[in-house]
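Hi W., the flavin mononucleotide complex you wanted:
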Amino acid sequence: MPKIKLAEKAVDLIREICTKFNNDEGELINVLHQVQSKLGYLPAEVQEVIARELNISVAKVYGVVTFYSFFTMLPKGQHPISVCMGTACYVRGAEQVLSEIKRQLSIEVGETTPDGRFSLSCLRCVGACGLAPVVMVGEKVYGRVSPQQVHKIIAEYKEGCAAEAKTA
Amino acid sequence: MADYTMHVLVCGGTGCKASQSELIKLNFQNRLSELGLSDEVQVVMTGCFGFCEKGPIVKILPDNTFYVHVTPEDVTELVEEHIVKGRKVERLLYVDPETQASVHDAKGMEFYKKQVRIALRNCGFINPENIDEYIARDGYAALGSCLLEKTPEETIRIIKDSGLRGRGGGGFPTGLKWEITRKSVSDQKYVVCNADEGDPGAFMDRSILEGDPHSVIEAMAICGYCIGADKGLVYIRAEYPLAVERLKIAIKQAREYGLLGEDIMGSGFNFDIEIRYGAGAFVCGEETALIHSMEGLRGEPTVKPPFPAESGYKGKPTNVNNVETFANIPPIINKGAGWFAAIGTEKSKGTKVFALAGKINNVGLIEVPMGTTLREVIYDIGGGIKDGREFKAVQTGGPSGGCLTKDFLDTPIDYDNLLAAGSMMGSGGMIVMDETDCMVSIAKFYLEFTLDESCGKCAPCRIGNKRLHEILERITEGNGTKEDLDRLRMLSTVIKDASLCGLGQTSPNPVLSTLDHFYDEYLAHVDSKTCPSGQCKALLKYTILEDKCTGCTLCFRNCPVGAISGEKRSPHYIDQSLCIKCGVCYEKCKFDAIIIG
Ligand SMILES: Cc1cc2nc3c(=O)[nH]c(=O)nc-3n(C[C@H](O)[C@H](O)[C@H](O)COP(=O)(O)O)c2cc1C
Ligand code: SF4
Ligand code: FES
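Structure:
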């Protein structure tokens, strides 16, 4: 991963969050949640600052970040696409939908398109099994998605109509 | 609530919200206020009604009318016809699939007839963001009666007598767990609510938290009183934004009403609740892993004993219960142990909530008495198999459970029967499969999940499951042998015996149960290299029927790898060594001349 230099502001923000949790190492997961929700992702440089602030090793922070699938070290695309791979969606054809998305965007799960527009991930049951198979773009939920509809969904976000979509 | 003459209940569960139920509610409110009816008709956003298949759902009280598949555009008509003129909107009523008659009163719906709602008693009835509505339905009465009239011992006695067992999967007697934690001596104890809900394809716990968060808060306070804890923690998945939001609102309201905090109801008892966020790790549903995660560590399980009841969060005695377990507590206190113990089977009392999904007509959230048969659940409540297909199997217990065949359709559902049948109750996921589902692929699907989620601490689970998965991969790709089937079984047994935590100990269950019940299907994959349900792509074979092929060349022109050849106007054929089984020719052929076999 290319080294990035964190902006002064980002460092301050991380410090502020750590202070809010009394720089308590037991609050590491809460700190990570908040930092990720502000910065979008948790690259190594961010983890270093957190480790320093909470007075623990970077290895420990890294260990926690990589353990939990919710935390990501890569920036998400402008429109993160998540395909539900819960059992209900799986038996109703989520796999075919996923491969169609992969094909159309030419990326694998966990990757982001080169233009930074879309990223692709899988998640497990969004609680809308009645609508299976389910795909989410940002926070918008698409239900009963067929491989044939994938093109249309992606097109919604390709042009100017991105404004409609609320990104997380 | 007393002044309103009518109530419009709009489902605010995750599924219906995804289908614009928020806008439906807004349209109702706007339209009613335009007509000056806002003081007479109340619009409420409730928790999940359970009938997710037909969402978004709108229910109108007092006449109990159940409207399905409502869109925001339908609201004007509903207001003008139903609310103003008192005429039901026929086209939006639920239609009974058997009789084809529309149902005018929700009580007449097969879907609800066999259900008994205890844990879900308030879901779909009250506004979860308003504590007054919870209180109006006996809310916090149980807490009051425990704090003011019962000793902790008496309360524990009631829970023990009720026969309530943990709904998180293990089925451990709840009253006994409370008693053990009570007896642990310490200056500080904790009550933990396990809202991690890891089973992929299940949404019971989140629906309870979304639809009735106060019932969990109340029960946690009762538990705190019983075991001697003044602090509660809810460990909830960060991926459940709606549940988190409603829980936060509920905690805040409970504090404002003095139902959480210091000296609750003047009893001298203090109790407060904090929320802890999970971050997407299935193994964190296991209680020791959950506790480590709450401490800010990697969520790796540790060996039991010591059990959390002796040494849990921060090394202090901790009582961990599941969301649904908690939701059962207030009604048990209010109505008595005998009432609860009268429901269910000999060793499994009360009800169980299931998230019914898969190839079934009525996907949704249901609650039935223990002892209900699978047939009743799948056919009477679930409305049978989708698209008139044949029932093949039902999977219970998620990645730790197994598949049951039609031979078990008449088995009464309870902890012990499901275990004996080679599956388990689990937390309540119930996935129905039809003849187009390949059981080897299903086993592989679950294993992929465990593989992803294994914490990696111990070798049998980390490496063993990987090997299991490789074998299954081989089989679905047509490279399996008969010896592989024996290897699957042997390896599964070792993983079960040697893994440290419940995840590893149960991870081979989907493999073992499908091997037991669908051995022929495995055999077909390894012997004749065919997939009977046609799901394993690598085992498909596309062939052209000579007598049907007109030689139109459409398939020839569309095949991406040039595997098809033939003269114009004479039959074509497919070179199997080149075919990549993409299925394009099959889709394109206008004469049904291409078959999959
Ligand atoms: C791998 C694994 C995953 C688990 N996931 C959950 C879960 O998602 N929710 C839950 O309540 N219990 C889960 N459990 C069970 C908990 O360890 C624990 O037994 C339960 O929360 C106790 O509450 P109960 O007695 O009320 O069921 C899981 C156990 C294992 C081994
Ligand atoms: S059985 Fe699996 S999940 Fe459990 S401790 Fe071992 S490696 Fe981790
Ligand atoms: S399995 Fe996809 S929403 Fe539940």
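The longest strand of chain B covers residues 351-358.

W.
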